[in-house]
Amino acid sequence: MRLRQIMASAAVAVCATGGAAFAEVTVSQSNSPELGMAEQMASLMGAEHATVGAVGQDRMAALATGPRIAKPEKTEKAAKPAHTDEPAQPVLIRYEETFLATQPVPKGDQQWQCLQNALYFEARGESLKGQFAVAEVILNRVDSREYPNSVCGVVRQGGGGGCQFSYVCDGNSDVMRDRQAADKAGRIAAIMLNGAPRGLTAGATHFHTRAVNPRWAHRFPRTAAIGAHLFYRQPGA
């Protein structure tokens, strides 16, 4: 059966090339009942052999093995979009004004605004390291189970008859009038919220100015002293 299929396919192929092979084939047109079956078979087989002989070897191999299915070409994986759900890569910080100036114009959501406000009102008179350190304290609290799990929740938290961050309840207007200081605080807030390393305060959760001496400062281990601020880590936080 397979041979018959090959022969038929070969015949079609020869017809497609112009039919030259059939010019050399003669088939008896006699209807005489005296023509033997053997002669008819010989004539038929002769025609088939002639047809197959007219087909090239490459074509015959292709007919025998069937059509070749082309494999799709390999293509490079599409690049991931710039904005994905994957965590942002940490920013390498240089505590320099020139580094800060190269960062994008600060903008963000409510959490960014809360961090910007806290840096502006709590630390705008500090050095860059001092402002980054205050940002570390706020974010360390966000990560701790002892405190609210959002920036806004942390900076607005009350307790002890007052506010955790004095600017929240000092009665003054929370309007950032110094545009340059507000821009700096916004850039620092954006950098820290984008996953910058916190390498200044060794996990500090508290700070105070050198002008005061709160009771808790005697119980918490001090982790850093930067500018006018001293930093501490609450045990277990």
Helix content: 40-55%
CATH H level of the largest domain: which superfamily?
Cell wall hydrolase SleB, domain 1
Count of all domains = 2
In quaternary terms, these chains amount to single chain
CATH architecture of the largest domain: Orthogonal Bundle
Class inferred from helices and paired strands: mainly alpha
Largest sheet: 3 strands, antiparallel
Order of helices and strands: HHHHHHHEEHEEE
List the helices and strands and how they pair.
Blueprint: H1 2-16, H2 37-53, H3 57-65, H4 97-101, H5 110-123, H6 128-143, H7 151-155, E1 158-159, E2 162-163, H8 179-193, E3 206-209, E4 222-226, E5 229-232
Antiparallel strand pairs: 1-2, 3-5, 4-5
Helix pairs in contact: 1-3, 5-6, 5-8, 6-8
What does this structure look like?
- The protein is mainly alpha-helical and 237 residues long.
- It has two domains: 2-65, no CATH class; 97-232, Cell wall hydrolase SleB, domain 1 (Arc Repressor Mutant, subunit A).
- Helices cover 41% and strands 7% of the residues.
- It has helices spanning 2-16, 37-53, 57-65, 97-101, 110-123, 128-143, 151-155, 179-193, and strands at residues 158-159, 162-163, 206-209, 222-226, 229-232.
- The strands form two sheets. Strands 3-5-4 form a three-stranded antiparallel β-sheet, with helices on one face. A two-stranded antiparallel ribbon has the order 1-2.
- A hairpin with a 2-residue loop joins β4 and β5.
- α5 packs across α8 and α6 (128-143) crosses α8.
- The longest helix is centred in the N-terminal third of the chain and has 17 residues, at 37-53.
- The protein is globular, with a radius of gyration of 43 Å.
- The chain starts with a helix and ends in a 5-residue tail after the last strand.
- Mean pLDDT is 74; it is low at 1-42 and 60-87.
